[in-house]
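Session log. Operator J.P. requested a structure for one protein chain; no other inputs attached. Running the standard single-chain path with C-alpha cell output.
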Amino acid sequence: MSIYKKNSISKDEIREEILHLLNVRFGIAQNRFSDIEENDFFGIDGLLTIRSLVYLVHFLEEKYNIIFTETDYNDPNFYTPEGLSCILEKRVNA
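Structure written below.
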C-alpha cells in the first residue's frame, strides 16, 4: 500500500476542462451550458455530432486514464457537461 495520498480532482475542475475542450476543439462557447439548466450535447441546439462525442470521450479516457463502461454510456447524465463531470469524478477519484 502506498503511503502517498492519491491526487484527487474535483467535479468543477473536470467540468471546466470539458467546457474548455468543447470551446477550443469544437468552437462551442462555454456560456452555452448554464449552471442551472444544462443542454445535453445533442439536444435542441445540436451542439455535438456523434463523431465529436467520440473524440471527446477518447480525449477524456486518455487524459484521466479510464475507460468508460456501457453503464456510463447508458446514463442520461453522461450527455451533459455536469453529468459527465460527476461520472468522471467518481471514476478518477475511486
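Operator note: The radius of gyration is 14 Å.
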